[in-house]
């Protein structure tokens, strides 16, 4: 499939999207990136800064459309203008905390928008999809490490997680209704880090909702201190434990999924966990980042945040076996590359 196929990447200017686009271009795919710019930095209607830097890193061009996945007319124009082979679907609102406050916005965008995209794909005969899902579909874990056999949709603790679960269910139903569809659901754990060049990285709009960008913004002086939500969880130091995965390992996972989905023996849908299989607590992450950056990260303990769980980490052996994928970068690399990005770009993409 490499070299002569065109991949539509929704949410292509976002954190996971932009790093995946780098890997796609490096492997000779033609990339069409679609983004409504709600979570990325762009001046007016210009190409988002992240994609400009992707082009700089790779020396390749990214075809870009400013568009919303809920806009079926615009999607239809894009599909008719290009011979798209496969879609990688990242576009989604992604804050756990915000989803609790704005559930309707999350369902309309993440579930409604995804359904609109799948409808237009089907209409245009494009029936191969890699979906950016999440470990949140497993809810509060019934066992650890989490395998793909773990029940989904039971005890999802927030609308964000439910929106990913509902979208997975929509895709399963689509595959049942039409055997031509081929879908891989990639259930991520916690992406962190940045491209080793330091040119692209995580640049959340407003106050970060995820741990690592918050830590790095404290270290670089943008924020006074980190708030640690809860130190009374049943974990070794009382703070939440998560499976962190380097963004470039995650990006490679999407290329492995493309190869799998294009194999003649692949049918219908399959889910794969992408994680390291090792959990780190909030305070362990703070310590690792301090060691990587040489900066002190001030923090305060607060009460638990609604929608959070104590522990979550992956069994990623299925991806290793069937996708020939494994995470290769450790916690030191994650913190080193995050700091390299943040110190070179203290205000994110607006630093340019």
TrEMBL record:
Q: How does it assemble?
A: Homodimer.
Q: Cite the SUPFAM superfamilies for this sequence.
A: NAD(P)-binding Rossmann-fold domains
InterPro entries for the chain: NAD(P)-bd_dom, NAD(P)-bd_dom_sf, UDP_G4E
What cofactor does its activity depend on? NAD(+)
Query: What role is this protein assigned?
Result: Catalyzes two distinct but analogous reactions: the reversible epimerization of UDP-glucose to UDP-galactose and the reversible epimerization of UDP-N-acetylglucosamine to UDP-N-acetylgalactosamine. The reaction with UDP-Gal plays a critical role in the Leloir pathway of galactose catabolism in which galactose is converted to the glycolytic intermediate glucose 6-phosphate. It contributes to the catabolism of dietary galactose and enables the endogenous biosynthesis of both UDP-Gal and UDP-GalNAc when exogenous sources are limited.
Q: How is this protein named in the record?
A: UDP-glucose 4-epimerase
Q: Which GO terms describe its molecular function?
A: UDP-glucose 4-epimerase activity; UDP-N-acetylglucosamine 4-epimerase activity
| Catalysis performed (reactions) | UDP-alpha-D-glucose = UDP-alpha-D-galactose; UDP-N-acetyl-alpha-D-glucosamine = UDP-N-acetyl-alpha-D-galactosamine
Which family would the database say this protein is a member of?
Answer: Belongs to the NAD(P)-dependent epimerase/dehydratase family.
One Pfam family name is GDP_Man_Dehyd
Q: What class of enzyme is it?
A: isomerase
* Domain called NAD(P)-binding: residue spans: 8-338
One GO cellular-component annotation of the UniProt record comes to: cytosol
Its keywords, alphabetically, are: Carbohydrate metabolism, Galactose metabolism, Isomerase, NAD
Q: In which pathway does it act?
A: Carbohydrate metabolism; galactose metabolism
| Keyword Secreted attributed | no
What is the E.C. number? 5.1.3.2
Q: Name one GO biological process term.
A: galactose catabolic process via UDP-galactose, Leloir pathway
Which CDD domains does this chain map to? UDP_G4E_1_SDR_e
């Amino acid at each position: 499939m490499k070299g002569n196929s065109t991949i539509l990447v929704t949410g292509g200017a976002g954190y996971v999207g932009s790093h995946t686009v780098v890997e796609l271009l490096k492997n000779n795919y033609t990339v069409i990136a679609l983004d409504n710019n709600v979570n990325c930095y762009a001046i007016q209607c210009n190409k988002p800064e992240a994609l400009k830097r992707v082009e700089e890193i790779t020396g390749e061009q990214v075809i870009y459309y400013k568009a919303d996945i809920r806009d079926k007319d615009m999607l239809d124009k894009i599909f008719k203008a290009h011979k798209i082979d496969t879609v990688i679907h990242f576009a989604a609102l992604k804050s756990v905390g915000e989803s609790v406050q704005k559930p309707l916005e999350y369902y309309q965008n993440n579930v409604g928008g995804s359904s609109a995209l799948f409808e237009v794909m089907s209409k245009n005969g494009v029936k191969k999809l890699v979906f950016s899902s999440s470990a949140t579909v497993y809810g509060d874990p019934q066992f650890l490490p989490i395998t793909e056999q773990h029940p989904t949709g039971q005890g999802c603790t927030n609308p964000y997680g439910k929106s990913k679960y509902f979208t997975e269910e929509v895709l399963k139903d689509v595959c049942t209704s039409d055997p031509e569809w081929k879908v891989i659901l990639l259930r991520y754990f916690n992406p962190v880090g940045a491209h080793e060049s330091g040119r692209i990285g995580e640049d959340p709009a407003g106050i970060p909702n995820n741990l690592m960008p918050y830590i790095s913004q404290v270290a670089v002086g943008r924020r006074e201190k980190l708030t640690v939500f809860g130190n009374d969880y049943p974990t070794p130091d009382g703070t939440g434990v998560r499976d962190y995965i380097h963004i470039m390992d995650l990006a490679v996972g999407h290329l492995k999924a493309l190869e799998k989905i294009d194999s003649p023996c692949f049918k219908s849908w399959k889910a794969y966990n992408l994680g390291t299989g090792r959990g780190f607590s909030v305070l362990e992450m703070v310590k690792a980042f301090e060691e990587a950056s040489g900066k002190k990260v001030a923090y305060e303990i607060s009460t638990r945040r609604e929608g959070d769980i104590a522990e979550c980490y992956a069994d990623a052996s299925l991806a290793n076996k069937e996708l020939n994928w494994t995470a290769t970068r450790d916690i030191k690399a994650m913190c080193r590359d995050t700091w390299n990005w943040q110190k070179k770009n203290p205000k994110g993409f607006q630093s340019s």
